[in-house]
Design the sequence.
């Protein structure tokens, strides 16, 4: 049983977020498990966040990607089609003098009806490039088409709030994606959904971000039916907002649920893997016998939750 916890710590939360954080089940796991891997995606910045890299590694995927998250998700939902797939997330690009920043799509508060209307407008345009769209939810349009085999882009969470000029794809697919972005921007400029949003002083949808592209044969799932770890995203929103109080409250809930379940599994079977992740670092622990000197050290100086989480964000 492998539990991956994204946003277990984040620089956006401020220096006091870890103070007073009481997580007894996590404390017990840290006290008994062995540190086995440390991942650093900070220098140079990787196109995927640390938890995404840990998940890809656990699935046995190639270290340098691209990683077909959309097709993998579709296969896990029981869809047997195997063409290259991707997610398109409707979003707002904020254009400045020397940078283009992708605003967190969740800040749009895009309704299902708005998203479906925008996707319907965009769909014929993408069909000209052999791409078919299927609505999944307000922020995920599921695309299919052979052209998606060649697209390798940074993950959505990596580029949120960042200057997109650093993350736009290079190589032969760059011109195709740039053209599609320009055509979609022009198409949506006077769309009724955007005009209504402007009248309400809401951010408009003026672009999309393509991510999770590639091919994943659905039969691969049957080869490793139990390899996918549990990866609850409960801490994401509060960490991204920098809301320390909400993040701490969510951590307490997570400790009583997913972390407690991993601890119970470890006590019952002697097996457990835990990966704690910030945006750029991940620390993985496993149930392995500790050398006698480490057991003695932990007995005299128990690992503190706050210190372990702080190490995820300390330069």
Sequence:
């Amino acid at each position: 049983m492998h539990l991956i916890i994204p946003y277990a710590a984040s620089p956006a939360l401020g220096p006091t977020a870890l103070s007073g954080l009481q997580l007894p089940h996590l404390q017990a796991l840290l006290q008994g498990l062995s540190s086995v891997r440390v991942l650093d995606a900070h220098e140079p910045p990787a196109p995927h966040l640390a938890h995404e890299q840990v998940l890809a590694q656990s699935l046995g995927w190639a270290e340098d990607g691209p990683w077909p998250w959309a097709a993998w998700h579709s296969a896990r939902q029981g869809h047997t089609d195997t063409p290259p797939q991707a997610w398109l997330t409707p979003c707002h690009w904020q254009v400045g003098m020397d940078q283009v920043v992708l605003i967190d799509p969740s800040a749009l508060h895009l309704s299902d009806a708005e998203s479906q209307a925008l996707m319907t407008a965009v769909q014929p345009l993408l069909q000209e490039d052999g791409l078919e769209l299927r609505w999944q939810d307000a922020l995920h349009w599921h695309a299919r088409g052979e052209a998606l085999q060649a697209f390798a882009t940074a993950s959505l969470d990596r580029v949120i709030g960042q200057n997109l000029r650093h993350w736009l794809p290079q190589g032969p697919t760059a011109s195709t994606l740039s053209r599609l972005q320009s055509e979609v921007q022009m198409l949506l400029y006077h769309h009724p959904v955007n005009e209504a949003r402007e009248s309400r002083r809401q951010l408009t949808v003026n672009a999309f971000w393509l991510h999770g592209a590639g091919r994943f044969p659905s039969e691969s799932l049957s080869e490793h039916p139990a390899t996918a770890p549990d990866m609850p995203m409960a801490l994401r929103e509060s960490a991204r907002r920098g809301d320390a109080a909400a993040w701490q409250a969510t951590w307490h809930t997570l400790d009583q649920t997913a972390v407690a379940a991993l601890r119970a599994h470890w006590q019952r079977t002697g097996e457990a893997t835990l990966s704690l992740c910030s945006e750029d670092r991940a620390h993985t622990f496993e149930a392995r016998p500790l050398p006698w000197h480490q057991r003695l050290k932990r007995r005299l100086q128990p690992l503190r939750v706050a210190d372990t989480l702080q190490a995820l964000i300390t330069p």
